[in-house]
């Protein structure tokens, strides 16, 4: 009758291995690594009642303004102008007129700007991810002169403020004849996203064991086959994580869209129109709460549907082979 071997983590450096001759213990013990000790300690602290209480308080503080904005979006315009949202509990009154006017009003309609937001966002996500994957592979697995210096330069571009680049880029787009087109927004978002995307994807690629790449080379695989058949399947969580982050960033962006596409109704995305909902004199400011929640629908659905990929991409830091 075979004996069952149980596995147990221990801090005892003299623990014996039952697979070795002369050891009759039924437990296979090993010493905890420093990383495992830190993980256990962090888990204990974060799961304590005090930490849970602080997290609940912060969640309530963070959620309360959003809840008030949501409640305001369903209140009549007269009540929005005269009383605070908390008075709804004493005299509840609900209407969807704000949403109807926001979506289909002749002067404030948002329905025509939804398509523009999708046309702006999807290419602005695909373009930087595609370029960053190729650049990250080169920095991680291809030896060439000045590689480290160039990578440091790319990483340093993250500190350049977006505001500094707006006027030079707009001037260049006008010279190229691209002003008032989707290309200005696509190129701008791609330029701003590339340094961070290359840095993150490079770090993920460097965590992949070099032995895996060497084994593929021994089998005759070139760079193209290694990239698409070996690395790409392992990078799915990282790609999904950055893709979600970039999608949310571009969809909610106002500065870049207002600078490069704000003057053209055929190109302007949803955020630009939401900012103009109140009118030139601010007479329709009561529509802003409804407009804000209309613009939030797509990002909320995307994040809730793909949050497990987002979390996996953030937590994926090593690959054991």
Structural notes for this entry:
The longest helix has 31 residues, at 111-141. The protein is mainly α and 321 residues long. Mean pLDDT is 80; it is low at 1-13, 23-27 and 317-321. The chain has helices at 34-46, 49-73, 77-82, 97-104, 111-141, 147-156, 162-176, 182-206, 210-218, 223-234, 236-252, 255-261, 270-275, 288-315; strands at residues 6-10, 27-31. The protein folds into three domains: 6-32, no CATH class; 46-95, no CATH class; 111-315, MetI-like (MetI-like fold, Orthogonal Bundle), CATH 1.10.3720.10. Strands 1-2 form a two-stranded parallel ribbon.
Spatial extent as radius of gyration: 27 Å
Fraction of residues in H or I helices: 55-70%
Main beta-sheet annotation: 2 strands, parallel
Instruction: List low-confidence stretches.
Output: 1-13, 23-27, 317-321
CATH third-tier fold name of the largest domain: MetI-like fold
The main sheet orders its strands as 1-2
Shape: globular
Q: What is the arithmetic mean of pLDDT? A: 80
Calculate the terminal CA-CA distance, rounded to whole Å: 33 Å
**How many domains?**
3
CATH superfamily of the largest domain: MetI-like
Number of strands: 2
CATH class of the largest domain: Mainly Alpha
Q: How much of the residues is beta strand, in percent? A: under 5%
Structural class: mainly alpha
